[in-house]
Amino acid sequence: MQARKPIVAGQFYPGGRNSCVGEIDQCLPSEAERGRLSRSLPENIVAGIVPHAGWTFSGPLAALVFWAVKQRHERVHAFVIFGAAHGYFGQSPAVYDGGSWMTPLGEVAIDEGLASAVLSSGAAISDLDAHRSEHSIEVQVPFIQYLFPEAEILPVIVPPSEQAISLGEAFGEVISAADKKIVCIGSTDLTHYGPRYGFVPMGVGAEALEWASKVNDRKFIDLALKLEPKALLASAAENCNACGPGAAAATVAAAKRLGKTKGVLLAYTNSNEVMLRKMGTSSADSVGYAAIIF
To answer: CB-based contacts of 163: which residues, under 8 Å, 6+ apart?
Structure first.
């Protein structure tokens, strides 16, 4: 089976090995941040939620989740990566169940045994084509390759339906019975607010962007932290506060099945805050990003 080649290297993240490694190092938390954050980490991390914008905007939050896993688990055998369904319109979660994926850091194998186990449960289907143009999983893979060079991956695109919950529960069952460390990662950005996205229920301007961040995004985050996957899906449908609610719901359901009762919010920001900090400019549009572990 052929390797999936990267489609957003050189766009969402660097296209060369050395530049990719350099940017990952920049995304990882500073020494001061590490000391502060380490105190908030649970002893056992089973899952996380990460954003999937270009690394310039959301890379540090995604890196933070993988760094947190590394602090508690030196070795992870496999990462299940639940992705958003930006261009996949199938009803069932779609698993990339064989072969490997390529990034500028090289090749990473698919955990075919894990794929077989979840496909046997009936919670998902095999569909390699569904992954050809989806970026939400790809942008996470170099972090895994850098921090966990021996780990395999299992990419799964998850539509925003209640099948996401069944999928997460199925993975929870499979992982519970496994004799190796497996971590689930859900890839989603939060509210896409502003004229560019056609979503302006509170108008435009600073107050509207503040609402998107402090009210709309917070609704989604709080439901994730309380491990309420059904309400999380409903909130996304009603409030447009996530682009990968299926991925997040599957992650939350898996974490709940694996015995977790709450999540930990490691960091939150949005694209407008990043622009102000890095570029000294603002925008009428903004996208929210959260880093959560369970």
So the answer is: 91, 92, 93, 123, 246
Task: For 62, list phi and psi in degrees, rounded to 5.
Answer: -65, -45
Dihedral (CA of 57, 59, 62, 64) sign: negative
Q: Which residues have CB under 8 Å from 253's CB, separation 6+?
A: 164, 165, 166, 167, 168, 169, 172, 229
- Comparing C-alpha atoms, which of 188, 183, 147 is closest to residue 164? 188
- Whether 1 shows a pLDDT value over 80: the answer reads no
For the chain, the domains span: 54-293
- Residue showing tokens 């609402």: 211
* Residue 267, beta-bridge partner list: 291
Percent of the chain exceeding pLDDT 90 equals 96
Bridge-partner residues for 289, per DSSP?
A: 269
Instruction: Give yes or no for a contact between 208 and 106, defined as CB atoms under 8 angstroms apart.
Output: no
Q: CA-to-CA distance for 249 and 233, rounded, in angstroms?
A: 7
* pLDDT 10s digits, 53-96: 999 999 999 999 999 999 999 999 999 999 999 999 999 999 99
CATH architecture of the domain with range 54-293: 3-Layer(aba) Sandwich (3.40)
| Stated pTM of the model | 0.97
Q: How far is CA 244 from CA 83, 134, 173, 287, in A?
A: 7, 12, 23, 13
For residue 224, CA distances in Å to 60, 70, 220 come to: 20, 22, 6
Tell me the per-residue pLDDT of 185-202, one tens digit each, with 9 for 90 and over. 999 999 999 999 999 999
